[in-house]
Backbone:
């Protein structure tokens, strides 16, 4: 028996850990951390081991499915695309291109083929009705960063390797290993920081896994982050602690921020935050007086009604304390490829634009080229010009992941046509007329497009496939391009290779003008995302500039580095002003739209806190809904429980392990109670992505312990008005014990 060893980047979360996979007789026999990996240095979490489960999962679709007489049946690829060609173009001709909706989900961010070719599908369809999982996750952070620094992915991340203080708000990097911050083995890095005398402070309504290893933890009322952060900024001005440091020459708007936060004194916000004024001031002073420090906040601060304001104020704090773009502070990665803030003229750009159009029904502004995913149901239900008649979903399960999934499920059943690109027949794809499965992650090449732009250290790593694809299995980018071709009238039988070559030539002509032929020649023999990657590497900040810098990177060099763990491009370095892409060429500390939204928060300060609110939570083993079907991750204690404080349990008559009802005007559900002092009183925590008991889904492992869908309690009309992000945290609920049936 021959054993082969393969080195692979894990595609299951933002940590992007390097793996060592051993294979015998075409089967995975072990998954371990790759000790030589230049980025993760051997660290992995349990999700990586579950790659074997995912590859072998009998529920994973291996052939296309077409719904006939209400039942999904396996068909050939030709039959599947023939069905799309039969139904999609006539629908577009009758109702217009915007009648086709397009939505993509979290796994797309980990797949270079989907990420680089999704825009080609959107252009081929010609639709403006586009959605993504960003608006139930991180789009407030991207909006705030775009307004301040000029690009959606100019995300300042903690330079934890050199920091002496990290304040974490509404995030749990011990479980996530970063979110909008790619930092494998956060625990190890945090311990190293503490060992050199540094401190980790966590502010969260739950004593999370990260809080458990922190030097201090402070409970905060869900949704009150904007008040805490504003009061900390207020303290910096009031106590003359503002020091811009090395970026002083490149910052504008300080006086405007000073005036905007004037009403948010610590005493004014303390009750609403449930953090006393002295503690708020102490946090601001410690941040200002620690030479190497950073504030990091994530999903808890994004998925609330003040998500963009909170995201903005985090960076305001880092700027005003001199910690932006400084070693040990909040810095910007310099990704090897695909980074817009390292291309074009340095130091100034067009910035970003929002609200170029509004959604048809609720008038939600477009942000980052898309509408809030919460709007899908209303766009399907509301008659009139532009009504959504068809939907194409790409690696997403919005029936479980967006608020009011039951409404969305009913709406999906009324569509004239639905196509899903997905590896599972799940709670969303069960509504599809055609399902096109992608290959196993182990049958696909891997290069991370987005996450090196938010990484704790600069690097370039590439993974070839571990296994060959099934004989007739197309690559996912080919499926996207074929649907686009059908929408453009080119037919399902189009030569995808020739179409890809033609589009690449057009793109090269637009980008490189008279040098286009040389660029095409330099990438000869490559196709699809590999060609795009070679181009991006060569033209990137570390690239070979098509031979002009022989020591630089190209795809061949990065591929050749795979067995040795990739290419280390060094620790983060100061990048201001060259990475700025704002029209002013400055860090815009006071974007007008954000200042205009602060009075909304100020008016809200007098609102009494609800008796009980619900928040989500994430577990390292159940990060997304499709992971619930993997035995390695599903085993162990049941994780879809309602976590409550003992004081709440006592006053509400709740019993450990018994069932409780959570309800509001939106819906009612029952969940198993888990009592813990880790919860803040007045807050109940229920994880997201559960509810695997819907008819038609084929997730056999997940169905054994289906859990309940938190998002059924959430109102799809509640959004952060600036970003359109869904409000998933701090929603008022009532909770009561479920009476046991008489024996």
Residues:
């Amino acid at each position: 028996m021959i054993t082969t060893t393969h080195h692979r980047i894990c595609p299951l979360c933002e940590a992007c850990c390097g793996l060592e996979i051993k294979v015998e007789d075409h089967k995975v026999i072990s998954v371990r951390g790759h000790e030589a990996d230049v980025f993760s240095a051997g660290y992995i979490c349990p999700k990586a081991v579950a790659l074997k489960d995912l590859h072998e999962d009998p529920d994973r679709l291996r052939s296309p499915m077409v719904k006939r007489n209400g039942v999904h049946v396996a068909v050939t690829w030709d039959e599947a695309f023939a069905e799309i060609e039969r139904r999609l173009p006539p629908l577009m001709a009758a109702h217009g291109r915007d009648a086709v909706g397009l939505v993509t989900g979290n796994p797309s961010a980990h797949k270079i083929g989907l990420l680089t070719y999704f825009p080609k599908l959107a252009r081929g369809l010609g639709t403006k009705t586009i959605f993504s999982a960003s608006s139930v996750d991180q789009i407030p952070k991207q909006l705030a960063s775009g307004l301040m620094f000029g690009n959606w992915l100019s995300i300042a991340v903690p330079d934890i390797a050199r920091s002496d203080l990290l304040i974490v708000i509404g995030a749990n990097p011990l479980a996530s290993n970063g979110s909008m911050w790619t930092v494998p083995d956060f625990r190890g890095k945090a311990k190293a920081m503490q060992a050199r005398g540094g401190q980790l402070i966590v502010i969260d309504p739950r004593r999370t896994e990260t809080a458990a290893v922190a030097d201090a933890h402070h409970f905060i009322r869900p949704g009150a982050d904007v008040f805490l952060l504003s009061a900390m900024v207020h303290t910096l001005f009031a106590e003359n602690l503002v020091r811009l440091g090395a970026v002083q020459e490149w910052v504008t708007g300080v006086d405007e921020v000073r005036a905007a936060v004037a009403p948010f004194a610590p005493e004014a916000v303390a009750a609403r935050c449930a953090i006393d004024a002295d503690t708020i001031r102490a946090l601001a002073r410690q941040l200002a007086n620690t030479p190497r420090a950073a504030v990091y906040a994530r999903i808890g601060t994004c998925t609330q009604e003040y998500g963009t304001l909170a995201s903005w104020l985090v960076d305001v704090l880092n700027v005003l304390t001199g910690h932006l773009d400084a070693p040990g502070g909040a810095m910007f990665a310099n990704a090897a490829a695909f980074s817009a803030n390292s291309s074009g003229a340095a130091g100034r750009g067009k910035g970003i634009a929002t609200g170029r159009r509004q959604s048809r029904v609720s008038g939600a502004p477009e942000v980052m080229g898309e509408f809030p995913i919460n709007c899908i149901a209303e766009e399907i239900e509301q008659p009139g010009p532009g009504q959504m008649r068809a939907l194409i979903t790409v690696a997403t399960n919005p029936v479980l992941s967006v608020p009011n999934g039951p409404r969305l499920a009913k709406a999906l059943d009324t569509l004239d046509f639905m196509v899903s690109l997905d590896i599972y027949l799940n709670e969303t794809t069960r509504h599809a007329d055609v399902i096109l499965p992608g290959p196993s992650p182990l049958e696909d090449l891997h290069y991370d497009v987005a996450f090196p732009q938010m990484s704790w250290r600069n690097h370039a790593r590439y993974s070839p496939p571990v296994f060959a694809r099934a004989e007739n299995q197309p690559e996912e980018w080919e499926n996207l391009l074929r649907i686009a071709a059908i929408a453009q009238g080119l037919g399902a039988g189009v030569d995808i290779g020739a179409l890809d070559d033609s589009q690449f030539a057009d793109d090269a002509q637009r980008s490189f003008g008279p040098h286009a032929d040389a660029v095409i020649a330099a990438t000869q023999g490559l196709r699809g995302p590999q060609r795009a990657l070679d181009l991006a590497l060569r033209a990137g900040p570390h690239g070979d500039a098509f031979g002009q810098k022989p020591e630089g990177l190209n795809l061949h060099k990065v591929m050749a580095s795979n067995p040795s763990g990739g290419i280390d491009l060094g620790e983060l370095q100061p990048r201001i002003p060259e990475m700025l892409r704002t029209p002013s060429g400055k860090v815009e500390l006071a974007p007008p739209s954000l200042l205009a939204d602060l009075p909304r928060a100020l008016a809200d300060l007098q609102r009494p806190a609800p008796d009980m609110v619900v928040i989500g939570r994430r577990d390292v083993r159940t990060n997304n809904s499709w992971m619930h079907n993997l035995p390695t991750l599903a085993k162990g204690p049941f994780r879809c429980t309602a976590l409550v404080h003992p004081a709440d349990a006592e006053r509400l008559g709740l019993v450990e392990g018994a069932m409780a009802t959570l309800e509001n005007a939106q819906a009612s559900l029952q969940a198993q109670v888990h009592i813990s002092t880790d919860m803040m009183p007045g807050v109940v925590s229920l994880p997201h992505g559960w509810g695997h008991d819907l008819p038609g889904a084929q997730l056999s492992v997940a169905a054994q312990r289906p859990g309940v869908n938190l998002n059924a309690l959430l109102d799809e009309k509640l959004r952060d008005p600036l970003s359109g992000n869904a409000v998933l945290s701090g929603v008022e609920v009532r909770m009561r014990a479920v009476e046991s049936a008489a024996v």
Notes: The chain has a mean pLDDT of 96. The chain has four domains: 1-49, 60-128+365-446+462-494, 139-326+576-601, 610-737.
